[in-house]
Design brief:
The protein is α+β, with helices and mostly antiparallel strands. It has 16 helices and 13 strands.
Length: 441
């Protein structure tokens, strides 16, 4: 190697190999939403990249082009680089008189292969792959024009190899017409990413909790989130001013369902700002004063409930039971609380709290899955959703203070009742005797 051209050619082949490697990993790691945003702002290359990401066939052709480039660059590096470096090593060994100690040609071949392998793996594979994955979007935008030019030049070969690959994959029942490099994530994968980001310090604990609650939000149903009928404070459509004053005096809400005969005939929702003029003038409620109240089944998922509220431009919906009666109501605040957690004006009214003895105090309206999450173990029941409902189901009668049930190795003791339901209870570990009820003393 009297001149530097062979070294330049070897370096060029390594750079080309690295560029094709970067192109392949960058297109796989690029987030479609971010590229679509750039494309919408008029970025020309972003439009091309976005179109590639949207179309599985174009994306596979893009990746096939990169793989062809990697193959050609690697073959060229092996065929040309090994020969050139072997001659250089042989000359160096001869100059130092090493040929007297070992076969110079064999040693030169081994040395050239070892050096090329090292350069190829580190500079041609590992470094560009890492850089491309860390800066996927910018790498895609930078290198895509060159890859598209190579794709055009090698188009017959790209299409031919892709067709051959598709034919072989079809023998294994794989359809390349669907996305072969899925850039989406399942909710479980997203939860894992959130936990990893939180553990790595990229997300604050509260931000991570909110994101996890958002992912679980659509798994909830109206029946799980609603205010049950026994706790609903409604106003009769024919209520007198004295009745209105009585309701407002004992309630802390801003919206009330309005019904005809009973809560099974809710005709709308009225805001407190519309009630006050009625009190001042001594007039009755009229249907024109009411906001609509959409009806949803208790099995409806909460995103369906939210859509119904948006459609009717209201913040309350009526939850129906399986017979068409009113099972409860659900408000926009109830939905918000499921994500952000309940916000009480009085900080002394938590729904779940431990005492110094390690016992868990729980309100009867708390869902069983919330208790399970708090305890870090599985607690479930096929027929009921709340702790109060679980106690009633196992007791098979109205609860009394001191009643206790055992369910899935947990002892649940009633500490307060409200009407015919459980207001609060204490949960402690117990022997695994599922479904057993104990009488109060």
């Amino acid at each position: 190697m009297d001149n530097g051209y062979p070294i330049l050619i070897i370096a060029l082949l390594i750079v080309l190999n690295g560029a094709f490697v970067a192109a392949e990993f960058a297109i796989i790691g690029t987030a479609p939403a971010s590229v679509e945003n750039r494309a919408a702002k008029g970025h020309r290359v972003a439009r091309v990249v976005a179109a590639i990401l949207r179309d599985p066939v174009r994306r596979d052709q893009y990746i096939a082009t990169a793989q062809l480039g990697i193959t050609f660059a690697s073959l060229g590096l092996g065929m040309y680089g090994e020969h050139v470096l072997a001659e250089w090593f042989a000359g160096m060994f001869a100059a130092f008189g090493a040929a007297a100690w070992f076969p110079a040609h064999a040693a030169a071949t081994v040395s050239s292969v070892a050096l090329l392998t090292y350069l190829h793996i580190v500079l041609g594979e590992m470094v560009p792959k890492t850089l491309a994955l860390r800066h996927a979007e910018n790498t895609s935008l930078w290198i895509t024009p060159a890859i598209m030019w190579v794709k055009t030049a090698l188009y017959p070969l790209v299409v031919g190899l892709n067709s051959l690959g598709n034919a072989i994959l079809r023998l294994f029942g794989i359809d390349r017409g669907t996305p072969s490099h899925n850039l989406g994530h399942t909710p479980e994968e997203l939860e894992y990413l959130i936990e990893e980001s939180q553990a790595g310090g990229a997300l604050r604990a509260e931000s991570g909790r909110l994101l996890r609650e958002l992912l679980r939000f659509t798994e909830l149903t109206a029946g799980e989130v609603m205010v049950p009928r026994v706790k609903v404070i409604g106003i009769p459509l024919a209520a007198s001013p004295a009745d209105l004053r009585s309701v407002l005096r004992g309630a802390s809400f801003t919206r009330f369902p309005v019904y005809r005969k009973d809560l099974d005939e809710i005709v709308g929702v009225i805001h407190i700002k519309d009630l006050l003029p009625k009190l001042m003038s001594g007039s009755s409620i009229e249907t024109g004063d009411l906001q609509p109240a959409p009806y949803v089944p208790h099995t409806a998922e909460v995103d369906v409930v939210l859509a119904a509220m948006r459609r009717e431009t209201t913040q309350m919906a009526v939850v129906m039971d399986e017979y068409g009666g009113t099972a409860g109501i659900i408000t926009a605040k109830d939905l918000f609380d499921e994500v952000a957690g309940e916000l009480h004006e009085d900080a002394n009214v938590p729904e779940i709290w431990p005492d110094p003895q390690g016992r868990l105090h729980v309100a009867g309206t708390v869902r069983i899955d919330e208790v399970a999450e708090r305890l870090g173990r599985e607690v479930e029941h096929d027929e009921v959703e709340t702790v109060g409902g679980l106690v009633l189901s196992l007791l098979e009668r109205p609860p009394r203070i001191g009643d206790a049930v055992i369910h899935q190795a947990l002892r649940i003791e009633v500490t307060a009742v409200e009407k015919r339901g459980v207001k609060t209870c204490i949960i402690t570990p117990a022997p695994d005797e599922p479904g057993r009820a104990m009488k109060s003393s």
